[in-house]
Inverse folding.
């Protein structure tokens, strides 16, 4: 298995772990609170903004640990640059991820349109965001293995 | 429209060029070894620029490195 393939798998696992743990903590801490509509909007704004630096920091740490471990175990060097195939794979995978998020966003709007609680819309959007990230890495894994 | 396929003779050409390794070819044309592997296996069709660079490394016309086969329509 090549470096890029292993990296995609590590990215999928780290995304699921980071977002899973974060929202599990948020749910346990604030899941039973009753809020007004304004307070709930502020709560979701803060919750979704806070995950951005946490996810970035988490992924950097995971990437460093993965690079060191992979080098020690397999002696395989991290590719020094991205060539044309890597860029095409990254672009195509990003397109797929945007499509997934786009459907998720439409679903979130649909949830609001059907009169479901505000909370459902934000949960729908978060799930779509996580799924799009997972789909991005799954696409990369697929294109690296099967060709593009 | 028929199915398009780009095939190549890179493996043979490498053998005839002092058994050049995939890594050596990758370094000469400026891509990763994984990309050379993918091209040899027919899993990736390179850009025109990369195809010309490979032909130049082997000092041979482009048509001897890559060939384009269009499968006939199924009746």
């Amino acid at each position: 298995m090549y470096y890029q393939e292993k990296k995609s798998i590590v990215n999928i696992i780290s995304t699921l772990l980071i977002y899973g743990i974060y929202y599990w903590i948020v749910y346990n801490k604030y899941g039973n609170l009753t809020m007004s509509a304004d307070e709930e909007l502020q709560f979701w704004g803060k919750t979704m903004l806070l995950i951005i630096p946490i996810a970035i920091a988490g992924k950097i740490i995971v990437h460093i640990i993965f690079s060191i471990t992979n080098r020690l175990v397999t002696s395989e060097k991290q590719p020094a640059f991205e060539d044309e195939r890597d860029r095409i794979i990254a672009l195509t995978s990003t397109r797929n991820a945007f499509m997934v998020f786009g459907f998720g966003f439409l679903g979130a709007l649909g949830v609001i349109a059907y009169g479901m609680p505000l909370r459902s819309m934000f949960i729908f959007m978060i799930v779509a965001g996580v799924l799009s990230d997972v789909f991005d890495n799954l696409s990369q894994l697929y294109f690296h293995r099967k060709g593009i | 429209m028929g199915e398009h396929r780009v095939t190549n003779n890179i493996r043979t050409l490498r053998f005839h060029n002092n058994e050049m390794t995939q890594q050596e070819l990758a370094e000469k044309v400026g891509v990763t070894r994984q990309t050379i592997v993918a091209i040899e296996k027919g899993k990736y069709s390179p850009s025109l620029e990369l195809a010309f660079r490979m032909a130049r490394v082997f000092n041979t016309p482009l048509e001897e490195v890559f060939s384009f086969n269009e499968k006939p329509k199924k009746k």
About this structure: Residues 3-146 of chain A form one domain. Chain A has a mean pLDDT of 92. The CA atoms of residues 4 and 44 of chain A lie 34 Å apart. Chain A has one domain: 3-146.
